[in-house]
Amino acid sequence: MPALPLTNNGKVDKQALLSQLPFNSHTAQAGRSAMEASLSAAAPTAGVSGRDLHAEVSAVWCDVLEVEQVAPDAPFFTVGGNSLLANVLATKLSTRFNIDLPLTEVFQYSTINAQCDYLSTKVTNPIAAPVRVPEPIHPAKPTTADQAIAMIGLSCHYPDSQDAQAFWQNLIEGKNFVRHSQCAESDAAMIWLDTWVEGQDAFDPGFFNLSEKQARTMSYAQRQLLLHAWKAVEDAGYRNEQIPNTGVYISASGGDLTDLNLHDKFSNGEFVLNAEDYVASTLNQPGTLPTSISYHLGLTGPSLFVHSNCSSSLSALALACSALKAGEIDYAIVGAACLFPQR
Q1: What are the residues whose beta carbons fall under 8 Å from the beta carbon of 33, sequence distance 6 or more?
Q2: Could you say which DSSP state residue 336 is in?
């Protein structure tokens, strides 16, 4: 024999090699046919259709070999198979027919016909049709109308305006809330303007289960924001325990946020801070303003302090709207304060 016969992919052509061996190749073929016939005779008649089994095995072969079709009598290793793919084939056939197919059986029964005859003795249940997973149903994208947001409660306190109704009436009348300060007479070089909010120091600590000592450590902004957050919920017709999934978005500025109870605390060049002053400085940090509202009203949504200079209030409102549209919260409280210490 001058050379071993090869297939198109460079492997040994076993069929051609078999025909060149000294013994009668027809005898070997007859032996294989007898073995396949005996397997066919032993196949159970109930449960599995031979045609369905053949189609299923062929589909697995094509999947493993990545081809469109395979001749039913072509050996696995002559149509592109190798030892690695043989493992894959054994695994896929075992999974598909819910049996334990040893790798050695793939080598022994190396054609589709032979494997079908072998599997027909192992598969006792009807072949289930491949399960078709339905396409996921995606809800229609919400329209602008579906994402509409309503303002259902309001509370505010402005100069010369104790509530929203008074503020609206003053706007209708075109009233100017800015007036000259009494300090203007003492400094002719400057014109002082005043937008004082009367009654900003009025606060009932007992209503929120706070002691008077605790209230004294709270800035005017913190007191008023807590008070008007509660009033806004009341104006909406709710009790705070009915709307736990509510986010709180607050912005604030003013002279009382950082200086409360911290004046004249220097002694001999050192900064002396007693316990009450320390509590005041901690509770009046900007981030405490929204979390204090969430705590006292029993709200479990996000509590964010928003600062973007002159756009802080609108930024807080935009964040609240985004959270509402995303379904992260059911309600939102948005507030802002700009207050200065009592004169």
Answers
A1: none
A2: E
Tell me the pLDDT band of 33, cut-offs 50, 70 and 90: low
Which residues have a Cβ under 8 Å from the Cβ of 196 and sit 6 or more positions away?
159, 343
CATH of the domain at 239: 3.40.47.10
Query: 16 and 79 in contact (C-beta within 8 Å)?
Result: no
User: From CA 317, how far away is CA 143, in angstroms rounded?
Assistant: 20
- Tens of pLDDT along 156-165? 988 888 888 9
Q: Give the residue ranges of DSSP H helices in the chain.
A: 14-20, 25-42, 50-65, 83-97, 103-108, 112-119, 164-172, 212-216, 220-235, 256-259, 275-283, 288-297, 312-325
Does 221 share its domain with 331? Answer: yes
H or E stretch covering 268: none
Cβ–Cβ < 8 Å for 160, 175? yes
Residue-wise pLDDT tens digits, 196-252? 677 767 788 889 888 888 888 788 888 889 999 999 999 999 998 999 999 999 998
The reported pLDDT for the residue numbered 30 is: 52
Last residue of a domain, one of 119, 154, 175: 119
> Mean pLDDT in the chain?
77
Whether 141 is in a domain gets the answer no
Query: Measuring CA to CA, which residue among 136, 121, 147 is closest to residue 44?
Result: 121
Rounded Cα–Cα distance for residues 81 and 341 (Å): 86
Residues 201 and 334 grouped into a single domain: yes
Instruction: Give the closest residue to 276 by CA, choosing from 220, 233, 320, 213.
Output: 213
pLDDT at position 325, please? 92
Q: At residue 223, what is the residue type?
A: R
**At 51, which amino acid appears?**
R
pTM over the 0.70 mark: no
How far apart CA 265 and CA 261 sit, in angstroms, is 9
The CATH number assigned to the domain holding 18 equals 1.10.1200.10
Q: What phi and psi values does residue 334 have, to the nearest 5 degrees?
A: -120, 125
Which structural domain range is residue 19 located in? 14-119
In the chain, the amino acid numbered 160 is D
Q: Residues 214, 303: one domain?
A: yes
CA 54/CA 65 separation, integer angstroms: 16
